[in-house]
Each structure stands twice: as C-alpha cells, then as structure tokens.
Amino acid sequence: MGTEAAPSARPFSVTSEVGALRTVLLHRPGDELRRLTPRNNDQLLFDAIPWVERAQQEHDIFAEVLRGRGVEVLLLADLLTETLQVSGAARIQGISGAVDARRLGHVLADELAAYLRTVPAADLAQILMAGMTFDELPFGPDATSLVRRMHHGHDFVIDPLPNLLFTRDSSFWVGRRFAITSLAMPARVRETSLTDLIYAFHPRFLGVRRAYESHTAPIEGGDVLLLAAGVVAVGVGERTSPAGAEALARSLFEDDLAHTVLVVPIAQTRATMHLDTVCTMVDVDAVVMYPAVQDSMCAFAIRKKDGGGVSIGGPDPFLRVAADAMGIGKLRVVDTGLDGVAAEREQWDDGNNTLALAPGVVVAYERNGMTNARLADAGIEVLPIPGSELGSGRGGPRCLSCPLSREEV
After folding, report:
1. pLDDT of residue 7
2. Greater confidence, 56 or 219?
3. What is the DSSP letter of 334?
4. Cβ within 8 Å of residue 98, ≥6 positions away
5. Average pLDDT for residues 113-129, to the nearest whole number?
6. b/e for 63-84, b at 16 or more Cβ within 10 A?
7. pLDDT digit string (tens) for 7-65?
8. How far apart are CA 138 and CA 229, in angstroms?
9. Is pLDDT above 70 for 184?
10. Catalytic residue set
11. Which helix (H) or strand (E) holds 52?
C-alpha cells in the first residue's frame, strides 16, 4: 500500500506554502461519492452530483503529476486500513465515532457496534468512509428498535463522508507538528476523527506531536496559510471562527511554532468558504489573488510578545502587513484578470486555489485558462490538471492535498 518504507521515510515538517513538496496526503474519491443524490447533495455540501469514475480519473492524474515531480503520495484509505489492521484501539475509536447512540438509540447502536468490531479492517475502513444505510445493516429488524422501524431503508445509519477528498481541511502541519481541526459543517465533523486515528495509531506517524487540537471553536485547514517560517495567515469566515483563529494563534505561540498570526476576515459565503479560495501562494514572494478582494482584504496581526502574552493590531491592509511580517519589501500579486465576470467565474472554479510543488511551480485546474495564463506571464510554471468532476464539491488542488513534508525555503 505504499507505506512499508516508514522507518527510512523522511521526517514530516512543513514551514511554508511553497517549499519543495516531498510527501502529501490525498484521498482518492470512492464509494462515498456514490451516496450523493439530488435529495442530499446540498446537505452533503456538493453543488452537483459528480460522475464518480471521471472524478477518480481526474484524481489519478493529479496524483501522477505529483509523483512525476518526486512527491511521495500517501492515500488516506490505505493509511486508514493499515491503522485499523495494527491497532485495536483505533478500531474501537473509529467505531465509537461513527455509531451515534443519541441518533440510533442504545439498542441499535450497541448491535451495530458489536457487528463492526467483527468486520475486517479494509471493510471497516470502507464503512467509516462511505457510510451505511439501514438496508445495508447485516442483521434483521429488531422489534425493540423504534429507530429502525421509523427510518426508510435508504436512510443512513452511518453518514458518508464525500468531502474526505479535501484532505486539507481536517488537519494541517506547522513545522514538525500536526494540528487536528474542528470542522464547522455537520456533514464534515466526523472527518477529523479518521485523520486523528491515522496520526495517533499508524506506524508511519509514530512519535509525531500535536500542535493544536480544538473540539470547540471551528477552524479548518483551508483557512490556514503558512506565509513564511513563523508567519501564519488564518481566514475567518464561513468555516473558521474568530475564537478558532485566536485559539490557534495562542497555541502556536506557546509551542514556538509562530511569532505572527494574521487573522483575515473573508466573506461568509459559499464562493469564499476558505481563505485559500481567494488567495494562495505561488512563490516565496508571490500570491495569486481574486481581484475583487485585493484592495479590501485586511488583517488583524496577533504577535507573540517577549516575556509572554500577545499583542493584537489592525485591521490593516493584508498585503502590506503580510509583507512586513514575512520580512520582504512587497508581495507580488497575480490576479485573475481585469474582466470582472471572467474573474468571478474562475474564482468560483477554484482558479485561486493552487498547490505549490516548489517556489514558482503550481498545480492548477486546466479550466481556469485566464488565471493560468496570467500565472505563466508572471513566470510561474503551471501544471494543469482536469477538475470538472473533482470541483463539484468546491475545491481545487490545494483543497485536495495535505502536505506532510516540504523542504525549507
């Protein structure tokens, strides 16, 4: 499954958005996407019903582009299966996170949990990711379970996790430590439990330490940009709350993982759900940015004070305060064009959501031709990938990837 080389594998560490990418966590779309219907796709945060086979083909192309540039690709489903094979504690924790007695009642929940404890690791991983319907329960109806009698057979006894392919959100790395996030939307809450299992119990992650973990204030990885060593930007909008941003900042300061956290208010809309939907780094001193927010985007600067405590300044213009914190004269900006309609279309199609493989080298959806051309004109090498089906959940190459190891810049 591609993880046998664990003892000799490079250490996990990420200190920037653009250092040469060495190891990344992806999730190849699977049966969880086949659970989407016109009846539930809004609730499960998809704007359309994806063509699953094409989404898998597009994702395979993405993974091969990364491998072709020397990136080690770890797949979440493989890691989860391996984790459940080697750890009984992981099995218990995974089942506990998926079986909700408050919703199912104790009779049905106990019976389902008992069954899942007997399931082989690969099958259990599949259930934890793709969910299970009442019709798929492996035991007959129990007259004592009102819950089962009152649900339709196609209702979910365990909800699917179709947004798992966006591995950026449930965890991120700062330096040599990982952060488990708190996802805001009910459809995604359980994703972090699977990521947590892998980091806690998989042999590849033996000895890694946590940077931050919150079960209260929402924060998602798509809102977190590592602008430079010690400088972190956090978007606050639809998915990340001010309390989540502040808690992350204080935790990073306590662990000496950052000296400045820039908290960036963004519109609380579907089109701009995360900071990385309007701005990502494409070089050590350059960002691609949606022009509609370029002049208005601001930031509160939270700084670690000598001797303890923090100071909070701003709001000030984001581009200026970011450059100051990074210790550079100015951030170069590549925008998505002066044509407002076209720029809006490409922002919606994740034109600003690029994944840097090295300084000045990014992966981008091929459909965003105007943005990609402007990046090329600015000296950025663009590696285009198809994303017609992958993008139906509103996420680009950065959303689809969780870097585990980058070289220093």
Report:
1. 39
2. 56
3. E
4. 116, 127, 128, 158, 190, 193
5. 96
6. bebbeeeebbbbbbbbbbbbbb
7. 346 789 999 999 999 999 999 999 998 888 777 676 666 667 888 899 999 999 999 99
8. 51
9. no
10. 399
11. helix 52-68
- Report the distance separating Cα 354 and Cα 334, nearest Å: 12
pTM: 0.91
**Dist CA 58 CA 406 (whole Å):** 24
CA distance 389 to 239: 23
User: Rg of the Cα trace of the chain?
Assistant: 21
What is the Cβ-side half-sphere exposure of residue 174, based on CA atoms within 13 angstroms? 32
| b/e 230-254 (16+ beta carbons within 10 angstroms → b) | bbbbbbbbbbbbeebbbbbbbbbbe
CB neighbourhood size of 368 (10 A): 29
| Plot region of 255 (φ>0 → left; ψ -120 to 50 → alpha; else → beta) | alpha
DSSP designation for 145:
-
Alpha helices by DSSP H, 117-202 = 121-130, 146-150, 191-201
Contacts made by residues 54-58, CB under 8 angstroms, sequence distance 24+: 54/388, 54/389, 55/29, 55/165, 55/389, 55/390, 55/392, 56/28, 56/29, 56/30, 57/386, 58/385, 58/386, 58/387, 58/388, 58/389, 58/390
Reduce the DSSP state of residue 339 to 3 states and report it.
Answer: coil
**Are the beta carbons of 179 and 210 closer than 8 angstroms?**
yes
Q: How far apart are CA 335 and CA 27, in angstroms?
A: 29
- Tokens representing 376 are 């090329």
Count of alpha carbons within 13 Å of 387, Cβ hemisphere only?
A: 30
**Largest interatomic CA distance in the chain:** 71
Q: Which H or E run contains 180? A: strand 177-180
Polymer length of the chain: 409
